[in-house]
């Protein structure tokens, strides 16, 4: 299992936690891998609770929220790499030449909510493999029993990115800084703080690698000591846009990478780890992975003895964190994939 804890400010964990379960479901493996590889290229700059999350083939973790009165339920990825909330709209475009992701998912219907307020401003995000467009609306949002009033969110009417067309999740709830919002909208978590519904301005993730079932939790308002051992390691946010911090070094075998430190972003929108081309190539070479041009990612022989592969070590805040082969090799349906993918800078999923 892996633990990711993001602290907005140093604060004591509350005794009452908002819990959101995370889950995993079966899917088309090869299609998902292609989509996730493309997804990494996207361009996007009084209580507590826990949301159970689902781990979708170690690639995406999602949980449930509701919008409106009475509540309409959606499966969303809780994504620290973005700041906006969007879900498919009942006004989803049907007559499109290309597949439209909102057609295959649960859709928000404003006419069925007594707390809906019209906004109407257009909404558009360009991704590496497609785009997302629609319009803004306002309604109450409920996360693990905690209500956020008058939350502005996007109704998606056209989703061309393959990752959305084939996904199990309906939408995305961004947990990034307000400055990252594509429409200058106040994010859900920021509104929770502003509306005083949390005991502490903190959220944390417990992410498990167990297949097909409850896979972890998003804890809002603190952290759950039963999910970790030892003390936290703190590292400063270097730029309040993404959850960006300094990665002090990476090592695998006898190789040392990022020797002078480099930028890194903690992104729960993916379980893969993106990095500069040369560094990713060096890591994959050290672990015996080779590039699959059909899938667009590095793969590893499924009969490889994981006990003979090296750990990959990341250093944050002066402490070394080892990633074992069992964590960085994704195994399923005869395909074994390296978690290390080429990108612009280190993006730690």
From TrEMBL:
Q: Keyword check for Transmembrane, yes or no.
A: no
SUPFAM superfamilies in alphabetical order: Acid proteases (SSF50630)
PROSITE patterns reported in the protein's UniProt record: ASP_PROTEASE (PS00141), PEPTIDASE_A1 (PS51767)
Pfam families noted in UniProt = Asp
Superkingdom, natural source: Eukaryota
Q: Where is the Peptidase A1 domain?
A: 61-349
Q: Name one GO molecular function term.
A: aspartic-type endopeptidase activity
Disulfide-linked positions: 92-102, 258-262
Q: Which UniProt keywords apply?
A: Aspartyl protease, Disulfide bond, Hydrolase, Protease, Signal
Show which residues constitute the signal peptide.
Answer: 1-15
Q: Does the keyword Transcription apply?
A: no
Q: Could you name the active-site residues?
A: 79, 267
Q: Which GO terms describe its biological process?
A: proteolysis
For this chain, the family text in UniProt reads:
Belongs to the peptidase A1 family.
Name the UniProt record assigns to this protein: Lysosomal aspartic protease-like
Q: What lineage does UniProt assign to this protein's organism?
A: Eukaryota, Metazoa, Ecdysozoa, Arthropoda, Hexapoda
């Amino acid at each position: 299992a892996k633990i990711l804890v993001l602290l907005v400010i140093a604060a004591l964990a509350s005794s009452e936690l908002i819990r959101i379960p995370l889950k995993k479901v079966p899917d088309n493996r090869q299609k998902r891998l292609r989509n996730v590889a493309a997804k990494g290229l996207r361009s996007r700059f009084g209580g507590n609770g826990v949301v159970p999350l689902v781990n979708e083939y170690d690639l995406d973790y999602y949980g449930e929220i509701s919008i409106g009165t009475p509540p309409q339920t959606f499966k969303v990825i809780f994504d620290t790499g973005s700041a906006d909330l969007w879900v498919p709209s009942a006004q989803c475009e049907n007559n499109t030449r290309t597949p439209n992701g909102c057609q295959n998912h649960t859709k928000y219907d404003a006419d069925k909510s007594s707390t809906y307020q019209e906004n109407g401003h257009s909404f558009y995000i360009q991704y590496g493999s497609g785009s997302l467009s629609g319009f803004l609306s306002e309604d109450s949002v409920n996360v693990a029993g905690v209500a956020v009033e008058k939350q502005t969110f996007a109704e998606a009417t056209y989703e061309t990115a393959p990752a959305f067309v084939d996904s199990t999740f309906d939408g995305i709830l961004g947990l990034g800084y307000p400055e990252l919002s594509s429409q200058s909208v106040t994010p859900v978590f920021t509104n929770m703080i502003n509306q005083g519904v949390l005991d502490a301005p903190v959220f944390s993730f417990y992410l498990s690698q167990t297949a097909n079932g409850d896979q972890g939790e998003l804890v809002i308002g603190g952290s759950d000591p039963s999910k970790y051992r030892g003390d936290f390691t703190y590292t400063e946010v270097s730029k309040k846009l993404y959850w960006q911090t300094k990665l002090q070094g990476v090592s695998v075998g006898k190789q040392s990478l990022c020797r002078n430190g480099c930028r890194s972003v903690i992104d729960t929108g993916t379980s893969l780890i993106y990095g500069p081309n040369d560094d990713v190539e060096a890591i994959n070479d050290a672990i015996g992975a080779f590039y699959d041009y059909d899938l667009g990612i590095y793969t590893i022989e499924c009969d490889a003895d994981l006990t003979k592969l090296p750990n990959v070590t990341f250093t944050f805040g002066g402490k070394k964190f080892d990633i074992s082969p069992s964590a960085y090799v994704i195994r399923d349906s005869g395909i074994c994939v390296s978690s290390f993918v080429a990108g612009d800078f280190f993006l730690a999923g």
